[in-house]
């Protein structure tokens, strides 16, 4: 049964992204909105009462991407962070601008990744999770998607002090007037999905 579930997860990781996109035409995507949508999707129906989320966004950041694929990559990264903390702790989400690029930071207060695993963390089927808990494809798929959009992913981790995932993407100038950067810091409980 466990092998069947793992195989289903692997197939879903490989095929789920391509099947959702109606077109290969990239669109202007509001990055902070996609991060928040990905977080809502990952936490739907889960008890996140012990999860403190802090947001520090640059503002109205636009990138060129396929929205479903970008959201899938973000969901994979967020899920890893939340699972590393076992749903309890601090999750810091941020965007920052540097020249023609935006950097997304997803930082967790989990146990960190052992140094000897860091060089393999993006390898297909590599996982630090217990058998049957992960396919070992989440980070591989996320990196493939981000590279497709001209970006990159890197991890910084200190064992015992958490992990930061840094995603860099090319910035698209917005046609709207420049908004002042804003910061939102909150500790909140995500609503539970109705089970009726």
How is this structure best described in words?
The protein contains 5 helices and 8 strands. It has 196 residues and is α+β, with helices and mostly antiparallel strands. A 6-stranded mixed β-sheet has the order 6-7-5-4-2-8, covered by helices on one side. The longest helix is centred in the N-terminal third of the chain and has 19 residues, at 2-20. Residues 14-21 and 175-196 have low confidence and may be disordered.
Secondary structure layout:
Elements: H1 2-20, E1 27-30, H2 31-43, E2 51-57, E3 62-65, H3 67-84, E4 89-98, E5 101-108, H4 115-118, H5 138-148, E6 152-158, E7 162-170, E8 182-185
Parallel strand pairs: 2-4
Antiparallel strand pairs: 1-3, 2-8, 4-5, 5-7, 6-7
Briefly characterize the structure.
The protein has 196 residues and is an alpha+beta fold. It is built from 5 helices and 8 strands.
What key attributes describe this structure?
196 residues; disordered C terminus; two-stranded antiparallel sheet; alpha+beta; six-stranded mixed sheet; single chain
Helix coverage percent of residues? 25-40%
The pLDDT mean sits at: 78
Q: Using the alpha-carbon principal axes, give the shape.
A: globular
Number of discrete helical segments:
5
Structural class: alpha+beta
């Amino acid at each position: 049964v466990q092998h069947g579930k793992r195989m289903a997860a692997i197939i879903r990781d490989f095929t789920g992204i391509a099947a959702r996109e109606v077109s290969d035409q990239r669109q202007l995507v509001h990055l902070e909105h996609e991060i928040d949508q990905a977080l809502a999707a990952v936490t739907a129906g889960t008890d996140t009462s012990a999860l403190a989320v802090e947001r520090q966004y640059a503002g109205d950041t636009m990138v060129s991407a396929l929205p479903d694929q970008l959201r899938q990559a973000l969901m994979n990264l967020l899920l890893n962070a939340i699972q590393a903390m076992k749903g309890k702790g601090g999750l810091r989400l941020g965007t920052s601008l540097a020249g023609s690029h935006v950097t997304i930071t997803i930082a967790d207060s989990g146990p960190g990744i052992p140094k000897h695993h860091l060089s393999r963390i993006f390898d297909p089927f590599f996982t630090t999770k217990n058998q049957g808990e992960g396919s070992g494809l989440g980070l591989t798929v996320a990196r493939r998607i981000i590279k497709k959009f001209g970006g990159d992913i890197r991890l910084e981790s200190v064992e015992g002090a958490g992990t930061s995932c840094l995603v860099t993407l090319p910035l698209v100038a917005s046609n709207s007037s420049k908004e002042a950067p804003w910061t939102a810091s909150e500790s909140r409980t995500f609503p539970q999905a109705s089970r009726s």
